[in-house]
Design a protein that fits this description.
The complex is a heterotrimer of chains A (172), B (118) and C (404). Chain A is mostly helical and 172 residues long. Chain A contains seven helices and no strands. The longest helix of chain C is centred in the first third of the chain and has 38 residues.
């Protein structure tokens, strides 16, 4: 067990535990905070795989923007802050069955993949970001997704503003 | 490169541990005399009325949303900027196009009045 | 290599050799060395903040035509230590019903969100924490963690004022991050790397503030707004929402917010000097890294002084003025500046530094003049009309005597 593996197991355990707490916390605000912890765990895993840029992007976009957006959305719906009803509904055993089935299926598929016990990072390539940048605007490579991404962001912006400005009279 | 990240991880941990230790130490040194009046919420000296969750404006959400869109845009622009010195004019024009599309989104938000502070 | 040409490596070898002599393996030696280095660095930064609080109070006093602290010790140097001792012994008054974990975590996150930035700032050619290859983005990402601390503080205090103040503060911080990140793309563009030490190395020929002064100005303004300092200190305006999100904190937890505030200003000064003023570049800085430390601090001092100067001179902005300034002036300006800098920089042929500098300066000048012309033309529409009172009839002797 190398040190990297021990750290990975520790971080993965924290991430999974936080993810479980996200769906089982009683108060929505607590769920949002557990989500932040889970996302931070994913960022650490990215860093351990030598994908430093994506670790930072994870913290910057997910924790810095999306989590704040989620917390604002939670605050906007006053009902979420009031007392909650029962945690489980009547069909919980069916959901548990489905979850166990999916987990068993995933476990079988992952364990039968030959690379499951290998530890290989993205590779400490000092030029990775430069190549990424060049590929983003290379006509043979990813320039179309690059421009389409900007149109998609524009669509998201316009859509969200249209929806929220409609309700600007104070309605949530 | 992993050594760099180890240092960063340790630094973040220490920068959280130092204030935690200081706060804990001050907690040991300070008096503890709670009484019911001291423990009430602050509301300019009067009693709290109503639940303390306030319904706040959708405006906060819109700012966070526009920030999110521009944040993702700059995430795309950073690798382009790192590769800038090795790009042709065509590559630069493409990124300028990218920025122009999102600038028009900002203009739309401006005209629709989504950026006004109510 | 002697101590003077590479201090960190010499110290690391000394301690590493001693540890290996005790029987530690390679990995553990690295771990312990990193831990020690990070610990000493963080501690030094926190202690420097203590000194800086005194500097700021003295300077502010002078700006306001008074002396500042001058009782304890020569020129009042020990004032901050006395204040720290006092705040260490104040009681933690925790109101009923607060959420314990977020309530206590918030001041820690606020300080961590500023202190962690120091890991990537290069103080000298080889005196730095870690030359992360994504250093510039790391700085912004850590700021996001600080914002999370403010949301936690506002929400967990279970107080209407705190919640309102917290969300208002975060909405402002989040808005001002957009021009900040866009203006940070420009040094990355010029130097071809996101690592802070690489950016400093690339400023050997010319400082980036000469190549993109408007971007440096945008960075300064948005950083001051992110810090929550005057003229942007709406979120801690005592007369408005009674200290805002930290109203329910007392004792050292409250003190931590102010430590984070002063440390942030100190950090902005060093970041500005690293990214725009050439950091540790200077005569013989590469050969003797300790000189680099002196150069960085010297340049950062001017920025620090400017920020305190602004604090002491300008009145506070209203929140709608702040939001309009950000979304309608700074963000479009930053984006247009980025586009024009990218195009002009590519159009000038390689290697002609003087022509490049002049072309970029021209671009910046056009943008500045254009922006101020636009502002004068359109922002003047909201000017308040001065209503002169109608002339009131005044009793005069001649009027009275004419009637009698």
């Amino acid at each position: 067990m190398t040190a990297l593996q021990i750290i990975f197991l520790f971080v993965a355990a924290i991430t999974l535990a936080s993810a479980v707490m996200v769906v089982s916390a009683r108060r929505m605000m607590h769920a949002a905070l557990w989500l932040v912890l889970a996302l931070a765990g994913v960022a650490v895993i990215f860093a351990m795989l030598d994908a430093g840029f994506f670790a930072i992007v994870q913290v910057l976009v997910y924790i810095g923007a999306i989590s704040i957006l989620i917390i604002f959305a939670i605050m906007l719906t006053r009902k979420a802050m009031e007392d909650v009803g029962p945690q489980l509904n009547r069909g919980w055993w069916l959901a548990a069955l489905a979850v166990v089935g999916v987990f068993a299926g995933l476990a079988v598929v992952i364990v039968s993949w030959p690379g499951v016990m290998a530890t290989a990072g993205v590779g400490p390539d000092a030029d990775a970001i430069v190549n990424f940048g060049k590929d983003l605007v290379d006509p043979d490579k990813y320039v179309m997704p690059f421009e389409v991404a900007s149109v998609m962001l524009l669509a998201a912006l316009i859509g969200a503003i249209y929806v929220s400005v409609e309700h600007k009279g104070g309605q949530p | 490169m992993l050594n760099d990240w180890l240092y960063i991880g340790l630094f973040v941990f220490i920068s959280m541990a130092l204030p935690a230790i200081a706060i804990f130490a001050a907690g040991l040194l300070s008096p503890k005399k709670p009484n019911p009046i001291k423990s009430t919420s602050y509301e300019c000296g009067i009693e709290t009325v109503g639940p303390s969750w306030v319904q706040f404006k959708a405006q906060y959400y819109i700012y966070a949303l526009v920030f999110l869109v521009f944040d993702v845009e700059t995430i795309f622009l950073f690798p382009w900027a790192v590769a800038y010195n090795q790009l042709t004019l065509f590559g630069i024009i493409e990124a300028v196009l990218f920025i122009l599309i999102l600038l028009s989104g900002l203009l739309y938000a401006w005209k629709k009045g989504a950026l006004e502070w109510m | 290599m002697s101590f003077w040409t590479d201090p960190m490596a010499v110290i690391a070898n000394l301690i590493g050799g001693w540890l290996a002599g005790l029987g530690m393996t390679e990995g553990w030696v690295t771990f312990v060395l990193s831990f020690l280095g990070a610990g000493v660095y963080a501690l030094l930064v926190m202690l420097t903040v203590v000194l800086l609080i005194w500097v700021e109070r003295k300077l502010l006093g002078r700006f306001q035509d008074r002396l500042g602290p001058n009782r304890l010790g020569p020129w009042g140097i020990f004032q901050t230590i006395a204040d720290m001792l006092k705040i260490f012994t104040k009681e933690y008054i925790t109101p009923n019903g607060v959420d314990k974990v977020p309530y206590n975590l918030a001041p820690i996150l606020a300080v961590a969100g500023v202190l962690s930035v120091w890991a990537v700032i290069p103080l000298g050619a080889t005196i730095l924490g870690a030359n992360l290859n994504v250093g510039v983005l790391y700085v912004v990402a850590i700021g996001a963690i600080g914002e999370l601390g403010i949301i936690l503080a506002g929400w967990s205090s279970r107080n209407k004022f705190a919640t309102l103040g917290g969300f208002r503060a975060v909405a402002l911080l989040v808005s001002y991050e957009v021009p900040l990140v866009v203006s940070l793309i420009i040094p990355v563009l010029f130097s071809g790397s996101m690592g802070m030490n690489n950016i400093v190395h690339a400023q050997k020929d010319i400082w980036y503030i000469v190549l993109a002064p408007v971007a440096a100005l945008i960075f300064l303004i948005t950083s001051i707004a992110e810090n929550g300092r005057a003229p942007f200190d709406l979120t801690e305006a005592d007369s408005e929402i009674v200290a805002g999100f930290n109203v329910e904190y007392s004792g050292l937890k409250f003190g931590m917010y102010y430590v984070a505030d002063f440390m942030h200003t100190f950090t902005i000064a060093f970041l500005f000097s690293t990214l725009w003023l050439g950091g540790w570049q200077g005569p013989w800085a590469e050969k003797y890294p300790m000189l680099g430390l002196f150069y960085t601090a010297f340049k950062a001092w001017f920025i620090y002084f400017t920020i305190i100067w602004l604090r002491g001179s300008l009145p506070r902005f209203r929140i709608d003025q702040m939001i309009n300034l950000n979304w309608k002036v700074l963000t479009p300006l930053a984006l247009v500046l980025l586009m024009m800098t990218a195009i002009v920089n590519r159009l000038v042929p390689e290697g002609m530094l003087v022509v490049r500098t002049l072309a970029l300066l021209a671009v910046n000048g056009i943008l500045l003049v254009g922006t101020s012309w636009l502002l004068n033309k359109f922002a003047g529409r909201n000017k308040r009309v001065v209503v002169a009172p109608e002339p009131r009839p005044v009793a005069r002797p001649e009027q009275i005597s004419s009637e009698s």
